[in-house]
């Protein structure tokens, strides 16, 4: 939530306190003036006070100073500011920077703003703190695999604490783009393919970064990005065109953004892509009508990097001046890196192509965030904090726990995992097993490779009496089998082998789309070489997106998906491999069998000809099954669970009513473990528009001791049951709904109920 507002209950408490105080304190005779001063006046809320201070400031600002607040420039990759920034800040011409960080450097620049600029408006330091600042947590897709929003909230809270210690008060996160196409490299930065899961993680991350009030010194203002539908890039190619219906926009791509607004997010970023013919950074419908009109967002909108200037290449702006007009007019407040607002606003005003009110409103939004951050009162960072806070043992411990919660056990035939700690000899194969850099994944903040615990070093630490041999086999993108013989020899000579395969960190993230989803290089051949030894082995995957791992899925006994798990990746994976942690994560994205199935997602429509193996003229492929390799929501455990007794609170519910579904979950195995109970609904035939075959509407991760059972409940309200009807009205249509409660998006216990007109 944004800073506190005045609440009536509090006002009456204050009034009561004041009255009591005046009743009991005997005072000498007072002049009328003194009496007035003591009379409780209407308390001014912090919100009102901020708006008043903004008014005062705006009245004193020149046009250049106003435009300065709308300008954001990039620092150097190493965190330094540029000489130009100093001069611009001194003259009031620069409101924020990105990438400038470090307590000393930010303080140095801030002193220029506070001591040398005319109006002493504090500078705001932004940075992409995506999954950790110095202590790196799993990539966001991995965090989402935990199906534990609380874990993501904790990671964001720690990231905020570290970032603020380094002078950063604005993070360009969370990335809440729904991504249904594994080719798109940025799938790694979000919470996967589902709007419901994505909304839960959006809320959690905003809460984690901002806390109850982002004005607290150890919190940052968050940024919901990239608005909007950036993840729907055609063919999964980054920055590509997006053309989708308003229904898909509202039902699939909007919800996590709206959830972020509900959680009080302070800023938004307008995306690079065009959307149904209008680039996102010039889109008045999304930035103004929806974001500010429908959702009542009162924070700041920053353009993505040079996306204002890119309106020219998109073809909607004839030149820089036109681009500035379009972006400002649509609702962009801050221009990142390109400088068109600054260069052209004066002329645009003179030509009456934009209004002074537009500029003032954009400046107001920037100042609002700066006031809410408390920057005017506390512009500087305590320089002693970095040493204490960054990478603290507490943060490392949290990273290790959260990493383990993100792992998904894809296969475990015959209880191959966990491995026994009594193993005499262990082979570790694959370059990723000893790579400190890649473990951090893309967008790794100020993470340092030297801080990262690799799997190899973690295994050596965990198993001091085991003989451990390491063979790289081949690098991630290798094109030679030169190391295969050594790897096979190591496997042959060991009681067990851990084969580590996947992508390097640069293969997902921005501008890292792939047209194939296979293991890169010759890694599959390396796996086959180890397999051919006939000795026991397990596969550990490290990757930022779903991969087509059909051969492993068919031939290997055990596969553990670990994404890019961050600073504590190695320890966490070693914990999972040897049973000190029990994997309980689930896939937040569908794993396809072939790249040609993409985009592949569980909540698709039924079509008029749903796939039928016995009927050619149905919706499928000639050469590959239509089903996923591993479905959304899937993941195993070292123990087993049983669901039973699905109960609905009613068989009929009015359109404005609510219903509770509950189920019993029992740990039927011999180890403690986690299960994620998932509730899906399906609107049966008779809707005014086609509806997905399944929609996630509830989930809960529970930890159960062996033999323990628990009842888990979910509530369905009009928010979960409604959808956009043929006239694009969000409503609950009477009819039958099926409820499926299970442990993945496939299978589970079923029940149904009727929604009736009241
Ligand atoms: C471009 C990326 O799209 C965005 O996610 C990021 O926040 C900005 N660059 C700033 O680094």
Give an account of the 3D structure.
The structure is a single chain. This protein is of the alpha/beta class and 758 residues long. The chain folds into three domains: 43-385, Glycoside hydrolase, family 3, N-terminal domain (TIM Barrel, Alpha-Beta Barrel); 397-597, Glycoside hydrolase family 3 C-terminal domain (Rossmann fold, 3-Layer(aba) Sandwich), CATH 3.40.50.1700; 641-756, Sandwich (Immunoglobulin-like), CATH 2.60.40. Helix content is 32%, strand content 18%. The protein has 24 helices and 26 strands. A six-stranded mixed sheet has the order 11-16-15-14-12-13, with helices on both faces. Strand 15, helix 22 and strand 16 (558-561) form a beta-alpha-beta unit. The relative contact order is 0.10. Mean pLDDT is 94; it is low at 1-38. Bound molecules: 1-deoxynojirimycin. Residues 98, 128, 172, 225, 304-305, 510 line the site of 1-deoxynojirimycin. 1-deoxynojirimycin is lined by residues 98, 128, 172, 225, 304-305, 510.
Outline of the structure:
This protein is of the alpha/beta class and 758 residues long. The protein is built from 24 helices and 26 strands. The strands form seven sheets. The chain has a six-stranded mixed β-sheet with strand order 11-16-15-14-12-13, sandwiched between helices. A five-stranded parallel β-sheet has the order 4-3-2-1-10. A five-stranded mixed β-sheet has the order 18-26-25-20-21.
